[in-house]
Amino acid sequence: MEINLFLDPVDLNSIPAGNARPGQQRMGEKIRIHAEKAHFPDLDGVRVALIGVIEERNAVNNTGCSTAPDHIRSAFYQLFHHWPSLDIADLGNIRAGHSVEDTYFALNQVIAVLLRKKIIPIVLGGSQDLTFAMYQAYENIGQLVNIVSVDPLFDLGQEEEEFNAQSYLSRIILHQPNYLFNYTNLGYQTYYVDYLAVDLMKNLLFDVYRLGLIKAHMEESEPIVRNADILSFDISAIRAADAPGNGNAGPNGFTGEEACRVARYAGLSDKLSSIGFFEFNPLLDQNRITAELIAQMIWYFLDGVASRTNDLPLKDSADFAKYIVRIEGQDEDVIFLRSKKTDRWWIDLSFGRTDRKKYEKHHFVPCSKEDYDLALQDEIPDRWWQFFQKLM
């Protein structure tokens, strides 16, 4: 498929002027930019591709977010490129279709082609309902996925509500055929969430982590993010002081530094294959603070990608040390793997399974050493229980 049919070139003349800093090798000079209709970038060797999406019709209280991609580019192009072996392309913008569904179709087709080429798409929204189109791309290639959403809400909506940026998850859950294996919310703010929705998420065996819990132990976000195929980042998850450019910005949330840390964790994960940044509204930004922050988050993500070590567990791999823990009163052993390359940990649920082909990518659950230490004290880690039940 010729994905250039869906993509408009970047109009370099219309991009807002960025904050130029002294130095050489800026992103705008080093990456392959689709700046002319007749000259689509050669994708050979490209590992990461930016895609803007000019769509906001399903935004909630955030009119203006469709203008975000070029404002993010303005800040991103002024940052410096530090990775000689990392080829990056900016493929331009997907224009709003005649209907929102047309926009979703264009985005999922573009992402599916990039995934087949082993290129990581970075989606610059637009509203967060575009996560649904990212999910559809994996349906196109027949892959079960884990979605991690950094968001103060669950985006379940109400049954009677129309589909929008705060109800897209319900559509993913109900969509048939279903290719969602697991959903994780990172950083929900309890006072914004119905307690019945918390119970529902737990009954669906989804993972939900309160903002306060994650902020107190930021290192715990690493194995959570490492389990994602798709990371969807709602900018309203960042406190208004650090990211004012959002119609739903609140006084609490992640700091800019914490958001960059999560983005780098995502880049480091060999499993993660697409990421989206949504709900930035340039009309509400102050002194370009939010645009600069998102550009830096993308920079940290790229830094993580450049540092990947091909550190995915495989059955009987010599690159991993195996630890078998027998827990009193438990029939199943709890098996842990520790990478000899990076010292990262996984729970191994592959042994004795007959469903290996369908769930192969989900038999190894990222965890922390604290989970192993917990098992040594005869306590089964929550991560083991949750994914064991999913695989039953």
Which ranges are low-confidence, i.e. pLDDT below 50, for 5 or more consecutive residues?
Answer: none
* Overall strand count: 14
Number of domains: 2
Please report the distance between the alpha carbons of the first and last residues: 38 Å
In CATH, the homologous superfamily of the largest domain goes by the name Ureohydrolase domain
Number of discrete helical segments: 13
Computed CA radius of gyration, to the nearest angstrom: 21 Å
Strand content: 15-25%
Topology order in helix (H) and strand (E) letters: EHEEHEHEHEHEHEHHEHEHEEEHEHH
| Shape-level CATH architecture of the largest domain | 3-Layer(aba) Sandwich
- Percent helix range: 25-40%
User: What structural class do you assign from the helix and strand content?
Assistant: alpha/beta
Mean pLDDT: 93
CATH class group of the largest domain: Alpha Beta
What is the CATH topology descriptor of the largest domain? Arginase, Chain A
Shape assignment: globular
Major sheet: size, sense and barrel closure? 10 strands, mixed
Structure description:
With 392 residues, this protein is an alpha/beta fold. The chain folds into two domains: 3-306, Ureohydrolase domain (Arginase, Chain A); 320-391, no CATH class. It is built from 13 helices and 14 strands. The chain has helices at residues 27-30, 68-76, 100-116, 130-140, 168-174, 195-203, 211-216, 221-226, 256-268, 289-306, 356-359, 369-376, 382-391; strands spanning 7-8, 32-33, 48-53, 88-94, 120-124, 145-150, 180-188, 207-210, 230-234, 274-278, 320-325, 334-339, 345-348, 364-367. Strands 1, 2, 3, 4, 5, 6, 7, 8, 9 and 10 form a ten-stranded mixed beta sheet that branches. Strands 11-12-13-14 form a four-stranded antiparallel beta sheet. Strand 9 (230-234), helix 9 and strand 10 form a beta-alpha-beta unit. Helix 4 (130-140) runs parallel beside helix 5. The longest helix has 18 residues, at 289-306. It is globular. The mean pLDDT is 93.
